[in-house]
Write a structure and sequence with these properties.
- Helix content is 56%, strand content 9%.
- The chain has 548 residues and is of the alpha+beta class.
- Helix 18 (477-489) runs parallel beside helix 20 (511-524).
Length: 548
Amino acid sequence: VLFKFAREREDVGLKSYLAASKISGHELKSLSHLWECKIPGVFLPLQCLINYLGFRMVAMLYLPLDKNTLKVGSDDGGQTYHAECEPLLEKFKLIGQSLNLAPHEYKGKLLYGPFDLEGHVGKDGRYYILDFSRLFPPVPKSDRYTSGFLYRLFRPEFVKRYPKPLCSDGFSTVITCAKYNDDLVEAEQFLFEKKIPEFCLFLDQLVRDVVMKLKMAVPGNFVFQISRTLHEAGINVRYLGRVYKHCTYASTRALLLIEMAARVIKQVLREKIRDKMKQEQFPLEHPYIRLLVNYLNTAIFKQEEEAEQCWKDIQNIILTYFEIDYTSEANFSHLLDMGIRKIIWEYDNKGSRDGPKLLFDRIRQMMGFKINKSYLNKIYKEGAELKTIVVSSIGLRIKHMNVISHAEGWLLRRDDKELAIRKFDIARDSVPLNKYTLRNYAKLYFEEYYQKNGDTHFMQYMKYLFELALMEDTHDTHTLCQYGEVLKIMGETDLAEEVLVRAVEVHPGHQKAWVELLSVLTLTIHWEKFKRIFRIVFCYFNSMRGYK
């Protein structure tokens, strides 16, 4: 196994550990989306992302490659570019078309991805692709982020659905044609002025009608991940401030502030733990657990006066990182007047002020530290301070490619539905719009929780999940068939009929779709008409089998 540590690199302008760790994150994310392309004859390495004690590294399998096997791409920062294998170049073209990446010229060659995406013909004769961190296009340049083109990228979900292809090498030193950079500026304007405002209307409704009603944001059961909902819409988490600006529902705004605060506290803690590790060079966890406990007690469980300085620092980072311009926007002025901590602490969900507990829950999810279960219940009920003795581990977090968690969910789907749902949920984090993961997650979630929550709000959540599954492939018969089946069970017969008709139109030979459609028709049309339709279907399948 090859390990690649995230680290600052002054030679390429990576002056912060956060930027370096983001590049490692892009490596895994881009690999997962490349895997989704299913380009025949292309082999990709298995990888995972390891976070431990504030440090991050990528672990990947060794492949039968060396410098001589490089046939497409550059391994020296673009000084030389290889284009020596036509079949591999054709694979790159298919990848670019699949991911909506703009072709562009470099050193007289036509590229369909970043110049440093490497294509190898391995010693075993297979085609391998490596170095995916810059696969997706960057957002426009900013004076604040001098090397932002390396890690400030558009979301894959946004790029794939954008009306025109976008260039992976935009705003880098290899681009000479201004058109590619202009396209990226235009795309960012579209994201800010159209996509985000439209999404915020949907997010307010989702939180009001589904999240609050199904109790998906309560201490101990904080299952609604606002960051993933942004990713499903193709919006980066760094734009949480812009999302907050356009949202109007109080609970949505509170959850957005909790997400922003949790992310800042996570980064502050990781930096403190890294510094302590460098200072003490002590491999055991206890000193770092003590540091974590002391900081979280100050930030969350102490009285406001004791936490004042801590929250001043947190608030300043939130306002800066999430680009909240409180001086020119009326929507942000209250953040300074009241203070972000006070707004979170006063978040009122039906008489229960759960803000600090939800903040603690979200930090725990992100950092992965483990706490004694009985003491965790005491924190939820009494707001008890955290103690070093109840934290058993500071958290080794390993993020796999989505295919790993999806496979685990698929294998567990009959024996342990609850655990299978959790595995599919993890797979959704890596590739939020994978139709296979979403439809399996939706079907299992329906089977497990319909009897407990089978009301209008639950139905809205099911529709939301299946519509997500159909977003990138509106003609997927299996998803349409499962969607129609769920709608039929929940009494939405008109919509079920419409969905199942779409399924048989796309794939007339799909027997299960026909069976479900006929089942729905028995509920919605006259018996004589149903019998005539049944005879037509029966004759159709007999003719397919060669019967008379």
